[in-house]
Amino acid sequence: MLRTRLIAGTTAGFVLSAVFATILIGVNLMETLVEPLRVDPDQPAPVTLRLPPTTLRVADDEGGIQLETIAPTIGRGQVVRDRITASIVRMYERSRRPPSAGVIIGLWFIYLLIAGMMTSYLRGFAPGRGALLRTQAGLLGLAAFLLILAKSFLLATDLSPFLIPLGALPLWASLFLERRTAFMMSVALAFLTASFVGFRLTAITVFLVTGVTAVAVFRDRKHSAGMMLAGALSGLAAAATLVASKMLFEGGMDVGGDLSRLLHSDIVAAAAGGALGGVIAFLFQGLAVLALGAVSRQRLVDLTDLDQPLLQRMAKEAPGSWEHSRAMANLAEAAAAAIGADSLLTRVGAYYHDLGKTVQPAYFVENLETSETSPHEELEPDVSADAIMAHVVEGTKILRKAGIPEPVVEFAYSHHGTSVIEYFWHKCLEQGNPKNRKESFFRYPGMRPRTKETAILMLVDSIEAAARTIDPPSKERFEEMVQRIIFVKLKQGQLDECGLTTVDLRVLATKLVDTLVSVHHKRIKYPWQDRKDKGEEELPIPGVATEKDIARERSETEADEEKRRAEAEASAGHDSHPEDR
């Protein structure tokens, strides 16, 4: 059985979420579980301690009592000199060491719920690539990695938590997956990161705005450098949100005083954190490629080089299939661009999807000469079906052995999905099905398309082949053929998991028809073709001429024409009557 990409079901999603929640519990509570990390006010602090807001009753100059809320931060290596702050530190450390069972269970449940919502969203609202086990494990793994770095930053420095580059992961999700998933990741990360600072409302709001703004601004996936601009703009939005949140939730903010603290300014940190997220997302794309099993644009560009050994092999051993793939690539790329899918990935997938036909090229009609006999004429229908289906398995093996990225390999084992080879199935039925074969014996052993790009290739594979049979090629006949193929694929359930909407299908149909009409437009015959059809003598074939020959002949021709014009004018003047002069 062909090995395809693993789908994460409900059980797998729960296991991933539980593991993620367990990891985050250890990350969040690490300093409370290790006694040497306890902060003693009389000793240099081993880690930074960020105290929660504490309300104090303070006597004013007039003897009255006022309430004052403080949230001091004890930097790593700092000794607490203030008596009140030292008392707060001691009480806080006693209250959280060791963490109670209620705290652990409560935090674990919250983390499990957030992670479970993430995996459920990916299964339900991004059922294509989002439902893959690699995608879900990759996203949770990247989130855990970034959160570990965030916690380490909070423990090692006394800088503002708003400096955490939260927008990096949503930008990666937007670049390699799709924007809806990126928005979901922004919301989840905002709450997860805020858990490290006591779920403060201001922190949640700022973190949320940072991620969402970055995703909203970044739209052009073809130019990943745009992530840096998106990050910078998200930082500005976060800084403005911070000021608004402070005024709304905490009764006000001294903007000037905050900015005067420079490196310790919350406003500066919010702006810098957004920009830093964009820079990190751009510079460390390879990390996301590795975690998500994606493929970079540079790698895709390299794979389009027609000197690539696998493409050279196909052009040599299965030339008809190679020309079919090249024609498909043009159609599929234009169709993908029309609906905003990854057109470059689709082109690359079209180049490589039929590589398995190089193993037994003679079993495919496009590789036969006009006078050659198809080997299927001497084979039983089920044997012929096995030979045809083998190109899916063999192509997948060849591509994986050559180290081709899995998103490209996916085109090889999904371009026929689980559809039936109808020609040989019907031929088997016409013969009375002597072996009592079931329909499953004639189904491809692949996976139904799970992305828009692979679904486009499935449609184009059938449409390009059928277009060759349309005679005469007219727009109406192309429309009928394209609509029928799309309807059949829908009826067979082959497009159920790919994420294509009815709007996408309408746009695809229109674009494919227009492209086919342009490719198969009517051309006028050359004169030599007309004379040959009529049995007349062929016209002479032009000979060789250099650039100098052409220039000399044109100069001589122009001189002859000028001479004839002068002679004609002289003759006209000589023949005129004297009285007319």
What is the secondary structure topology, with strand pairs?
Layout: H1 10-28, H2 30-33, E1 49-50, E2 54-59, E3 65-70, E4 73-74, H3 83-96, H4 101-124, H5 133-156, H6 168-176, H7 179-194, H8 201-217, H9 226-249, H10 255-259, H11 266-283, H12 285-292, H13 297-303, H14 309-317, H15 319-338, H16 343-352, H17 381-401, H18 406-414, H19 422-430, H20 452-467, H21 475-491, H22 502-519, H23 527-533, H24 547-575
Antiparallel strand pairs: 1-4, 2-3
Helix pairs in contact: 1-4, 1-5, 4-7, 5-12, 6-7, 6-8, 6-11, 6-12, 7-8, 8-9, 8-11, 9-11, 14-15, 15-16, 15-20, 15-22, 16-18, 16-20, 17-18, 17-19, 20-21, 21-22
What value does the average pLDDT take? 89
The number of E-state strands comes to 4
- For the termini, the CA-CA separation is 101 Å
Side by side, the strands of the main sheet go 1-4
Shape designation? elongated
**H/E series:** HHEEEEHHHHHHHHHHHHHHHHHHHHHH
Share in helix: 55-70%
The number of helical elements comes to 24
Which spans have pLDDT < 50 for at least 5 consecutive residues? none
Major sheet, described briefly? 2 strands, antiparallel
Radius of gyration: 35 Å
**Class inferred from helices and paired strands:** mainly alpha
How much of the residues is beta strand, in percent?
A: under 5%
General description of the model:
By secondary structure, this protein is mostly helical. It has helices at 10-28, 30-33, 83-96, 101-124, 133-156, 168-176, 179-194, 201-217, 226-249, 255-259, 266-283, 285-292, 297-303, 309-317, 319-338, 343-352, 381-401, 406-414, 422-430, 452-467, 475-491, 502-519, 527-533, 547-575; strands at 49-50, 54-59, 65-70, 73-74. Helix 1 (10-28) packs antiparallel against helix 4 (101-124) and helix 7 (179-194) packs antiparallel against helix 8 (201-217). The strands form two sheets. Strands 1-4 form a two-stranded antiparallel sheet. A two-stranded antiparallel sheet has the order 2-3. The longest helix has 29 residues, at 547-575. Helices cover 61% and strands 3% of the residues. A hairpin with a 5-residue loop joins strand 2 (54-59) and strand 3 (65-70).
